[in-house]
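step 3/5: co-fold with iron/sulfur cluster
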Amino acid sequence: MHHLSQRGIDGYYAGGSGVASREQFHSARGLVKAFMDQSLDVPVLRVGGNAEDQASHSAARERGLPAPIEAYGRDDSPDFCVDRLQTLVESYTPAENPPPRPPFAPQEPYSFATVTGGTVTYDHAVCRTCASKACVQTCVPQILSVVNDVPVLNISLEQAKKGGCTECLACEVECHFLGNRGGRIFLPISGLPDVGGNHVHSD
Ligand code: SF4
Ligand code: SF4
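step 4/5: write tokens
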């Protein structure tokens, strides 16, 4: 994520061939979250994902990420992919000062810890009026349920922290596009200062 936020980057090429499809899907969500957190505005070309992965990028683009994202399969030649990225970079003009992602200031936070020391928080004040409850629908290990109109764990806090929450990022990414934007995940990354939405917890 850090290198993505450095200045002077015109485009981003993500290759991932040979990785299991589930991991591909997770890294696709990670990429989308990085773009949201950092308000990144450069074209992305991703190679090696599966069909689901590619679909998720198309969906992200359609739902409002500013810069173009294109995904290609392993059968597309390296030359073709390089040409595509060059075309994207040359034909895209990023916003001069993309607005930063709004800070997350929950009125009614419901939080749980994750296995790497991160935190998932849902603002129940916002969730209550969310029609989609997209977080619950999309949670890969299905550890969330709707109770009294808000998302809560259907496992214990301890179980969530021991890996019940896989940090798949699905709840936050889908909440951003389909929900009321009441969900946020903070994952500390060792050695990195606080970058954008990625708060580092000191406790
Ligand atoms: S999708 Fe977002 S706003 Fe809606 S219930 Fe889930 S966390 Fe709350
Ligand atoms: S990060 Fe993934 S596993 Fe954890 S609560 Fe959200 S959707 Fe579920």
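step 5/5: annotate
Residues 120, 139-141, 143-144, 165-171, 185 surround iron/sulfur cluster (ligand 2) (CB under 6 Å).
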